[in-house]
Amino acid sequence: MAKKLVYVLNGPNLNLLGLREPEIYGSDTLDDIAGMLEDRAKALGCEIDMRQSNHEGHLLDWMHEAQSKGAHAVLLNAGALTHTSLALYDAIRSIRTPVIEVHISNPHAREEFRRHSYVGMAAKGSIAGFGAKGYLLALEAAAGL
Ligand code: CA2
Fold this sequence. Notes:
Elements: E1 4-10, H1 22-25, H2 30-44, E2 46-52, H3 56-68, E3 73-77, H4 86-94, E4 99-103, H5 118-122, E5 125-128, H6 133-143
The protein binds ligand CA2.
């Protein structure tokens, strides 16, 4: 049976994971998370395509690409763009591919400006506050869609 293609898209500054602010974001790097996702993906019959960019336009292009490649789902940690990007809101609304919002920390338990999420307003669902494990929880949710 064909594997379910799942895009895992990461936004600004997430390339610093594991290198700075471990008290907020833990000690796993993005490569560590990719490894965990690859392992879990095998068991779930999924194929992972994981990427990170500090540029909003790349994330938008990749969302469109996910749709055109027939991806089963997108896991999106848009970083701070979560709270500011109307363009991401429009992109999520404009594709049929379901998008699951992921955050390592719990933005609702932090500064006021993190409580609003354009991504969450358009996403199928959200997982936040469980550290790097949130990506695995999101993959399980995606596989079950
Ligand atoms: O908790 C999350 O996953 C966030 O998406 C992380 C974003 C933040 O703006 C969101 O409110 C919640 C920040 C990503 C920056 O990543 C860093 C990683 C290590 C050190 C410094 C920043």
